[in-house]
Specification:
single chain; 116 residues; alpha+beta; Membrane-bound Lytic Murein Transglycosylase D, Chain A; 2 domains; three-stranded antiparallel beta sheet; two-stranded antiparallel sheet; 5 strands; elongated
C-alpha cells in the first residue's frame, strides 16, 4: 500500500522516516531518490505496511486488575493496551471496558483496513 505525502516546511528525510515509522530504504526505493533532500510541497510516496486485519477483544476489568496483570494475562504490551484504549495513566477501575489487541484470544471482531 502506498500513501502520498506533501513535504512540509522543516521536513527532513529523518523526520519523515520517524513520522511514518519506516526504514529509509523504503522511501528512497519508492521515490527513486538520489539525494536525501526534499523540496517543500514536493509529493513523495510513503510505503505503508500491509495490515489486513487485527483481532480485538473486549475485556471488562475486575477489582484487582492492573495493566501489568492484563499484560501478563493476554501477552500483550502495556503500551498497546494504553494505545487501543486512549489511556493516559496507569490506574484502572473495576468494570472498566478495555479493548485488547490479541492474536491469542478468540476473535470478537475484526477491523479490515482494506474496507475503511
Amino acid at each position: 500500500m502506498i500513501n502520498k505525502y506533501h513535504v512540509q516546511p522543516g521536513d527532513t528525510m529523518c523526520k519523515i522516516v520517524e513520522k511514518f515509522e519506516l526504514h529509509l530504504n523504503g522511501i528512497v526505493k519508492e521515490n527513486n531518490i538520489n539525494e536525501l533532500k526534499f523540496i517543500e510541497n514536493q509529493t513523495i510516496l510513503i510505503p505503508l505496511p500491509i495490515v489486513n486485519s487485527i483481532k480485538l477483544y473486549e475485556y471488562k476489568t475486575s477489582e484487582n486488575d492492573t495493566l501489568l496483570s492484563i499484560e501478563n494475562l493476554f501477552k500483550v504490551a502495556i503500551k498497546e493496551i494504553k494505545y487501543f484504549n486512549d489511556l493516559f495513566n496507569l490506574i484502572l477501575v473495576e468494570n472498566q471496558e478495555l479493548t485488547i489487541n490479541d492474536e491469542n484470544v478468540s476473535q470478537v471482531f475484526v477491523i479490515d483496513y482494506d474496507n475503511i
